[in-house]
Design a protein that fits this description.
- This protein has 373 residues and is α/β, with parallel strands linked by helices.
- The protein has one domain: Metal-dependent hydrolases (TIM Barrel), CATH 3.20.20.
- The strands form 2 sheets. An 8-stranded parallel sheet has the order 1-2-3-4-5-6-9-10, sandwiched between helices. Strands 7-8 form a two-stranded antiparallel ribbon.
- Helix 1 packs across helix 2, helix 5 runs parallel beside helix 6 and helix 7 packs parallel to helix 8.
């Protein structure tokens, strides 16, 4: 798959999608660095890079990420995490991250990252979280000064292979009133089910702390089952392979007839949001069972069946993308209009890890923004 450039932000309607309010629920901090920032931070620590200018480095990340394998895709993060090992670096990356979201029209973003991967420079877990929060708050102030309205929170991630789930869960709850809005469970999915961190999820449930779990990306229905039962996930990170529990019985001029299995039915009936990331899902091979092109993505099937689908970028650097671009690609591929794109944003507002009143305010902001188009 060839990833188009960042400039692709217009829907078939001709509307510049950067100008409409959007919500980003699945966006990794270490997957959204500016190439120029990587160059400068790498120079500070004498880290060799595969390219010595920003555009070449951007292209390198896009090509390396287009492997069809989540394991290979994750190797690109060796570089981004390497330059994020100091407080100053974390502040800068988080600040620019928010600036870039705001410039793309995002009004609420949840920024996920794994503090345990940023301790090699001597930071403690708490210091790392505090540095990112400083960067977020500065980025929000920058955006406001430039006429953009944005709110952002941290999703503190535990890496599933590291078995530090309880420690990271306790870290997240310590900062729940200082910028952290939820807990995430990520990393190599196959072979590392959420059940491995059941103690952490039990603790989070006892603290009434919201959880999203990467599931249904590099592994199938059993991973999703574990995310729901062991993780008590309120959202599924990607979750695209929930479509394995949807059997297409027949198709004709009147429509498509399907049978929905018990796991998929549970996810649909409880409106558990799917954090779908179209370009990333192609790059990692998450939709390999259905094909290799965006038209093969089960996004539209899930949408038409009434699942709470949301649109996300996953890693803007690796996919050379933005939320506006992802929406434009979907609109072009599935002939969506602005009303469809509004549904995706309202779904995200409903699924945000915020108090009900704040989610309702977000929904009103989305509706007002689309009405102005």
């Amino acid at each position: 798959m060839t990833v188009p450039s960042q400039e692709y932000v217009h829907a078939p309607t001709g509307v510049n999608l950067q100008g409409i309010p959007k919500i980003s629920l699945h966006d990794h901090l270490d997957g959204g660095l500016r190439p120029q920032t990587i160059l400068e931070l790498a120079d500070d620590i004498d880290l060799d890079l595969p390219a010595d200018d920003a555009e070449s480095l951007r292209e390198w990340f896009a090509v390396q990420s287009d492997s069809g394998s989540l394991v290979e895709y994750l190797k690109t993060f060796d570089i981004t995490t390497a330059v994020m090992q100091s407080s100053d670096a974390l502040v800068r990356v988080a600040r620019e991250f928010v600036q870039d979201l705001a410039a793309d029209g995002v009004v609420y973003g949840e920024i996920r990252w794994a503090p345990e991967q940023h301790l090699r420079g001597g930071l403690t877990l708490d210091e790392a979280v505090e540095a990112v929060q400083e960067g977020i708050e500065t980025g929000v102030s920058d955006a406001r000064a430039n006429g953009h309205r944005i709110r952002a929170g941290q999703l503190v991630t535990a890496m599933r292979h590291a078995d530090r789930g309880l420690e990271i869960a306790e870290l997240a709850t310590r900062h729940r009133y200082a910028g952290v809005v939820g807990f995430d469970f990520a990393g190599a999915e196959a072979g590392f089910p959420p059940s491995r961190a059941r103690t952490a999820f039990d603790y989070l449930a006892s603290e009434f702390f919201p959880v999203t779990v990467h599931a249904g990306e590099a592994d199938g229905l059993e991973s999703i089952r574990s995310a729901l039962l062991d993780g008590r996930a309120l959202r599924l990170g990607h979750g695209v392979r929930i479509a394995e529990d949807v059997k297409v019985e027949s198709e004709d001029d009147d429509g498509t007839y399907v049978t929905v299995g018990p796991i998929a039915q549970w996810v649909k009936d409880r409106e558990i949001a799917l954090e779908l990331s179209p370009s990333s899902n192609l790059q990692t091979g998450a939709i390999a069972a259905w094909g290799e092109d965006l038209i093969d993505h089960p996004f539209d099937l899930l949408y038409q069946l009434g699942f709470r689908v949301t649109v996300n970028t996953d890693n803007r650097l690796m996919s050379n993308t933005s939320l506006s671009r992802e929406l434009a690609l979907l609109a072009e591929t599935f002939d969506y209009d602005l009303s469809d794109l509004e549904v995706f944003q309202l779904n995200a507002a409903s699924a945000a890890f915020l108090p009900l009143e704040d989610r309702e305010e977000l929904a009103d902001l989305i509706t007002e923004g689309f009405e102005r188009v």
